[in-house]
From TrEMBL, chains A, B:
SUPFAM superfamilies: Molybdenum cofactor biosynthesis proteins
MoaB/Mog domain segment(s): 7-167
InterPro entries, per database record: CinA, FLAD1_M, MoaB/Mog-like_dom_sf, MoaB/Mog_dom
Recorded superkingdom: Bacteria
The name this protein goes by in its record: Molybdenum cofactor biosynthesis protein
Length: 246, 246
């Protein structure tokens, strides 16, 4: 089954410098997961044009969709649109529909937009506008440029993600009474025999009723089941505390 | 003033696939900030050797210290040590002190370690062990390889970071009644005139008493003050709701 893939690039000095907790990355993880989209990378980088351009060029080549978060406002630290333009080898051009939106917004608040506000309409040539015409999502090639304020990021990601259709992930977990050391070789064998199933092993070191959760995941529930059963067959009796899903 | 820099690479299928919220990245942000270390990137990548090796090689070249989180256990999805070895062009070698630790741990729990457990002692050649001899921090060149379980990540990061001494950041904020459009040009001028001060502009769209927080930050409080005052001088009367710091 075809699986859509994505990466998310949070442009955020404020996150790296501990001024703000990142809300957009965790939100994107959840939404993309619900849409059956495999997230391949989540990067938080400073507001520096050359770093962002380099990451955009690199990451977008590996995935179906690259989402950027932040850096689309009118101030000097808003460099995402210019960085994406640079990464794609496209000029920045003033988008007339965005200009009209900005003028309308300022007119409602009783004035003309200053030049700084109009800079928000300078986007990579070929940028498409999707969703709400008054607050459109901006996309160019496979790069979707989302705003940083979390309430706006959510609105726009939700709007864009609603159009992405990828089959849901099917996942199951085994909760084990054994430490990882004691089943690592068996699990390695199962992972090699089932390369189409993502298998993860997550130990815990507290007073829970299990020592490790082993997760099995694919788009096809039957394959998950086959891999899980192969692993159970290799475990000593009593090793499985319980199972969950799919 | 010299500023130490760092990057953090979270190795985490479980984070990208929404199985676990990342606790290590946010913790590292806070600890590095408190130590005066500038965090240049926070990356979350899947448990894939070639992706991690590429990121390690790239990111460690830009910073003083690269911290990895996770992927150091005994199972098939633990590929960080091999990826770091690959990135540095070093072979994996079995470290005798780590072997002794693993043997001691298993002896306390009444047994011999299986071969899978000993794989945790296969580290990039030249790996140094720091801190608690029974649970040492592993570092090679400028790459520090930390465990993924949050309780262990914190212990080891705290131990390592205690040795990092960089002057503290000095930050101040202005809370403004104006929207960004109306001061973007003035702030751009101040940012250009004070390239040694990091200036950020963070709008909000709720019912707070201000519309934007503008932050000024450097290692030298006097420079922060000069840049902040230059900006205040360019603002219309009544624009500043209040100021905070340094």
């Amino acid at each position: 089954m075809e699986t859509l893939t994505a990466a998310v690039l949070v442009v955020g000095n404020e996150v790296l410098s501990a001024k703000r907790a990142d809300q957009n990355g965790p939100y994107a993880i959840r939404v993309l997961r619900e849409r059956g989209v495999r997230l391949e990378a989540l990067l938080t980088l400073p507001d520096r044009l050359e770093l962002i351009a380099e990451a955009v060029a690199r990451e977008r080549a590996r995935v179906d969709w690259l989402f950027t978060a932040g850096g689309v406002g009118p101030t000097h630290d808003d460099v995402t649109l210019a960085a994406v333009a640079h990464a794609l080898g496209r000029p920045l051009v003033r988008h007339e529909r965005l200009v009209a939106n900005i003028r309308r917004w300022h007119a409602r608040h009783g004035g003309e937009p200053p030049e700084a506000a109009l800079r928000m309409a300078d986007v990579p040539e070929g940028t498409r506008l999707a969703g709400d015409p008054g607050f459109p999502v901006m996309a160019v090639e496979n790069v979707v440029m989302l705003p940083g304020p979390p309430e706006f990021f959510r609105l726009q990601l939700d709007a864009f993600a609603a159009e992405l259709a990828s089959p849901p992930f099917r996942a199951a977990s085994l909760f084990l009474a054994l430490g990882e050391d004691h089943f690592a070789a068996a699990l390695d064998g199962v992972a090699r025999a089932h390369p189409d199933v993502d298998i993860g092993s997550y130990p815990r070191f507290d007073e829970a009723d299990h020592r490790v959760e082993v997760t099995f995941e694919a788009k096809d529930a039957a394959r998950v089941e086959v891999a899980l059963r192969a692993f159970v067959a290799a475990l000593p009796e009593g090793a499985v505390v319980r199972r969950h899903g799919p």
